[in-house]
Amino acid sequence: MEPFTVAQISTPPSPPAALTGVRVLPPKGLNNSIYLDLNHFSQHTAWAHGFMHNYALWLGPVLLAAVFIATYVVAWWRRAPRAAALLILGGIGTIVALGLNQLVGHAAKELRPYVAHPNALVLVAKANDYSFPSDHSVIAGGLTVSVLLVLGSGAWRRRRPARRGLPEAEASGGSVPGVVKVLAAVNLVLGLFLCFARVYVGAHYPGDVVAGYLLAAVAVLAVSLLRPFAYWAVDVVEPTAAGNILRRPGAVPTGGDLTPEPLVRPR
Predict the structure, then answer these.
(1) Between the CA of residue 150 and those of 72, 174, 179, what are the distances in Å?
(2) What is the CA radius of gyration of the chain?
(3) Please, how many CA atoms are within 13 Å of residue 258, restricted to the half-sphere of its CB?
(4) Distances in whole angstroms, Cα of residue 95 to Cα of each of 60, 102, 138
(5) What fold does the segment set 49-159+170-238 form as a domain?
(6) Closest to 131 in 3D by CA, of 55, 196, 197, 206
(7) What's the pLDDT tens digit per position in 10-42?
């Protein structure tokens, strides 16, 4: 007689408990009307669903990060360590904004729009988290503003090294490269389109993406106030081997591509 065995039947994990919170934050009428209008538009543009699903989920953030990295590479190649340092500050500000986003989201407790509108078309997996603010729009705002910051603020100027007993001085020129202006414009379009895509796929109210974008912009601008300290750190680090992180090897420490002094023959 065979021994009696008890078969253990695995039970599927229980679904996560439903969140509790507010159905939509003010301005309620505007949030609902724009969301439903865009959802109606989404229902009639089935040809774009595949691309918008990918862009809203992963393609948009990847493209934004690629442009951000490309801008850093330009600064590194052009031997503009201050611009590179400013981009690093922007990246730090974006990370700070993502952390603040979690705090704000749990304080606001706005439910996803498809909770209030169960018949809405949703092109991405329905998440069991809060809707306000949108973390994707935080990434869009942070990386967009980070690149826009290097368009000014003297980030592309280089310091002339002290020679013949003279103190260091700002090098002449230092204009923003044209390719960086193009990258900033492209990143702005990509970021705004990502915000649009998050509403198009039914994942967020328009107020969610606006709040996320502005939250990241404020965080990046606040962190960028550390610019004087970052520039001082550049002047300290650049002459060392670690300076290769900020500019390509072979650059003149703290001097960049400067025109050499003319030789003066003694009379």
Answers:
(1) 10, 12, 12
(2) 25
(3) 21
(4) 17, 11, 9
(5) Vanadium-containing Chloroperoxidase; domain 1 (1.20.144)
(6) 206
(7) 444 444 556 677 788 888 999 999 999 999 999
Whether the Cβ atoms of residue 52 and residue 39 lie closer than 8 Å to each other: no
Token duo for residue 85: 């340092």
Q: How far apart are the C-alpha atoms of 64 and 158, rounded to whole Å?
A: 27
Beta bridge partners of 160: 169
Alpha-carbon span 123 to 104, nearest angstrom: 25
- How many CB atoms lie under 10 A from the CB of residue 182? 11
Give the model confidence (pLDDT) of 127-155 as tens digits: 888 899 999 999 999 999 999 999 875 77
Handedness of CA 78, 82, 83, 88 (dihedral sign): positive
Please give the model's pTM, rounded to 2 decimal places.
0.81
